[in-house]
Design a protein that fits this description.
The chain is an alpha/beta fold. The protein folds into two domains: 11-21 and 121-242, HAD superfamily/HAD-like (Rossmann fold, 3-Layer(aba) Sandwich); 27-115, Transcription Termination Factor Rho, Rna-binding Domain, Chain A, Domain 1, CATH 1.10.720. It has eight helices and six strands. The chain has helices spanning 23-45, 50-65, 78-94, 100-115, 126-136, 149-157, 182-192, 206-214; strands at residues 11-14, 140-144, 168-172, 199-203, 219-222, 236-237. Strands 3-2-1-4-5-6 form a six-stranded parallel sheet, sandwiched between helices. Strand 2, helix 6 and strand 3 (168-172) form a beta-alpha-beta unit.
Length: 243
């Protein structure tokens, strides 16, 4: 197993799920919350979320064209449109699809949950320690997650460790590009106005790290438990205390 600490990076670019935040929090709390509240949320919001509905309808059309057999979409009335959107959202979630439209909608549902005190973002204990240490070293922090920027800000602003957003310079989601596309990481480096080699990307996904490395970024594979597979050439950490 390849373990390695790293010198201070100019920017730490962090994944969320399995990296800053337990996978269980995402799959056992956030996702079920969105699923349980999506019908009520869409029914109440009406025209305010029409853009999200249209994005879902557009993605549904692509799925139909690709023969993936999503549930039928009926749009004769607003009520049938909502029911179609709910069915499609559930279909996307069942497949753990990284849909931009789905992630946008989930973020807005979670926003209500955080504001109502029904949700609180969960981070590993070493995360706030690392954030403080990196800032003292003069490094910056950015986030790249498939969850929407809104969802990212909610998690870190209302976390179990308090409001961590003052530590974070920038947030990136799938509107920047796929996490397995090297061009996404090039765009992020350009947005941060630093060369790719100055950005250390930390994730629990080898496929994402492969893409970042192709873009010129150094990488660390974050495995919170002992790994069951090879690290595919990426140095391994089990805690941010190693960075």
């Amino acid at each position: 197993m390849n373990r390695s600490a790293s010198p201070a990076a100019r920017v730490y670019l962090l994944d969320i799920e399995g990296t800053t935040t337990p996978v269980a929090f995402v799959y056992q709390i956030l996702f079920p919350y969105a699923r349980a509240h999506v019908r009520d949320f869409l029914g109440r919001q009406g025209e305010a979320i029409r853009q999200d509905i249209e994005q879902l309808r557009s993605e549904h059309s692509v799925d139909q064209d690709q023969g993936t057999r999503p549930p039928p979409w009926r749009g004769e009335t607003w009520e049938t449109t909502v029911e179609s959107a709910v069915a499609y959202v559930h279909w996307l979630m069942d497949r753990d699809r990284k849909s931009t439209a789905l992630k946008s909608l989930q973020g807005k549902i979670w926003e209500e949950g955080y504001r109502a005190g029904e949700l609180q973002g969960e981070v590993y204990p070493d995360v706030p320690r690392a954030f403080t240490r990196w800032r003292e070293q003069g490094s910056e922090i950015a986030i790249f997650s498939s969850g929407s920027v809104l969802a990212q800000k909610l998690l870190f602003s209302r976390s179990t460790a308090g409001d961590l957003t003052p530590f974070i310079r920038a947030y990136f989601d799938t509107t920047t590009g796929k996490k397995t596309d090297p061009d996404s990481y090039r765009r992020i480096a350009a947005a941060l106005r630093v060369p790719p080699w100055a950005v250390l990307f930390v994730s629990d996904s080898s496929a994402e790290l492969d893409a970042a490395r192709q873009a010129g970024m150094p990488t660390r594979l974050c495995l919170r438990a002992e790994p069951n597979s090879l690290a595919a050439g990426h140095a391994i950490i089990q805690s941010f205390d190693e960075l």
